[in-house]
Specification:
Elements (H helix, E strand, L loop, with lengths): L4 H13 L18 H11 L9 H14 L2 H12 L5 E4 L15 E5 L2 E9 L9 E7 L10 E7 L5 E7 L5 E14 L3 E2 L5 H17 L14 H9 L12 H29 L8 H23 L6 E2 L5 E2 L5 H7 L2 H8 L10 H12 L21
Helix pairs in contact: 3-4, 3-5, 5-8, 6-7, 6-8, 7-8, 8-10, 8-11
């Protein structure tokens, strides 16, 4: 039996109560306290059940920062509700003038006793319209170089002064948002790490984000039909009314065999990163390797899936499930498209989200291969003196 999304969310607290959502986390934080080896056995048993984790931004973005830099009180307060999907999270990093160059962000946080007053604008905030909390990077000292004057906060998305405005993308869905912060008050108890040292805290979140986006099913891989590359092969083997299948064409088999091979390599690379995490090593810049490969690979897989549909890719379903030539409203557009077409359209964001491919290639070059950095005349200048558009 296939559960609906609503039914799965209703049942999810039962799953969370076992601790197996985050099996290696300590029990006091909502995990099961298992060793890395035990967790691998559990995951192998659970894999056929397809028990996807809800609240991925909480599990993969907020949690790494809390584990690496949070206080014990913060971990006990925030981690168990993340595991149980009781408090949904988003990320408030990118800004209209600070995307690829995140450290140049201008959202300000001013200290006022035991609180911080935050004003600014964030953009491309995935699922912010659904979130209860967000991880926020804000500038607390404009008189020092840009990476040294940032502080990391946890912000209540329901607080006064938080205005979330959805951004509808090409499929008609809403994933991304712009968020306006107008004199939002954040208690100092929700600051993670030391004042002005938020860049190092943010790197724990950014590494977790890259690994999440690099994984199977990220950014629309599951849109191929829930089976990733296996679904792609199944589409090619499907025969039409005349008994023909795309799989009968040698060039099609060659193309799909190449994609299958790359998917295996991607999976092995991610397994090595996860093995390092489970061995106690922090998630580092090597997560960018998988992210760079995955973005391009998923786009090529999605296009291949649509190619297997042929003329069927130009049709969409009406409410009765039949194909129709009449237009649909943007709100239903994604649901009315063939599953593969919606995934292909969504995949265009893969080389942008989680850090652009160009930025992640720089991370790999400088922090993994140890190549020299590109010259930056403003690297050590105070942020307030750096030219901005």
């Amino acid at each position: 039996m296939v559960r609906s999304r609503d039914a799965y969310e209703e049942w999810y607290p039962t799953f969370a109560a076992t601790g197996l959502v985050a099996a290696t986390w300590p029990v006091e934080y909502g995990g099961a306290g298992l060793s890395a080896e035990e967790a691998r056995v559990v995951e192998a048993e659970l894999a056929p059940l397809n028990l996807g984790r809800l609240n991925p931004l909480g599990l993969n973005l907020a949690a790494p920062a809390l584990f690496a830099h949070g206080t014990e009180a913060q971990r006990r307060r925030f981690l168990p509700p993340i595991v149980a999907n009781q408090e949904v999270w988003c990320q408030l990093f990118s800004e209209p003038g600070a995307g690829s160059d995140l450290a140049s962000l201008s959202t300000r946080a001013l200290r006022d006793g035991d609180e911080w007053v935050v004003t600014g604008q964030k953009v491309w905030s995935t699922w912010a319209h659904l979130a209860d909390f967000g991880v926020l990077l804000a500038r607390t000292d404009p008189g020092v170089p840009k990476r040294r004057g940032l502080t990391y906060f946890l912000v209540d998305m329901h607080a006064r002064g938080v205005d979330v405005r959805p951004l509808r993308h090409i499929t008609g869905d809403v994933d991304f948002n712009e968020v306006f912060l107008e004199a939002v008050r954040i208690p100092d108890a929700h600051r993670v790490g030391a004042e002005n040292e938020g860049w190092s805290v943010a790197n724990a979140t950014l590494s977790g984000e890259r690994q999440m986006v690099a994984g199977s099913g990220s950014g629309g891989v599951d849109r191929i039909g829930g089976g990733g590359v296996e679904r792609l092969l199944s589409l090619a083997r499907t025969r039409d009314r005349d008994g023909r299948a795309n799989w009968d064409e040698p060039l099609t088999r060659q193309r799909l065999a190449g994609l299958w091979s790359e998917d295996r390599m991607r999976n092995w690379t991610n397994q090595r990163v996860r093995a390092g995490l489970k061995a106690g090593r922090p998630l580092g810049p090597e997560s960018s390797i998988g992210k760079v490969h995955q973005g391009d690979l998923n786009q090529r897989m999605q296009i291949a899936a649509v190619d297997q549909l042929g003329a069927g890719a130009t049709a969409w379903a009406d409410q009765a499930g039949e194909t129709s030539e009449r237009p649909v409203t943007p709100a239903r557009y994604s649901e009315s498209l063939p599953y593969e077409v919606a995934g292909m359209l969504r995949s265009r964001a893969n080389t942008i989200e989680g850090g652009t491919t160009e930025i992640n290639k720089n991370v790999v070059a400088e922090r993994v291969l140890r190549l020299p950095r590109e010259p930056d005349a403003w690297r050590d200048a105070p942020w307030q003196d750096v030219p901005r558009s």
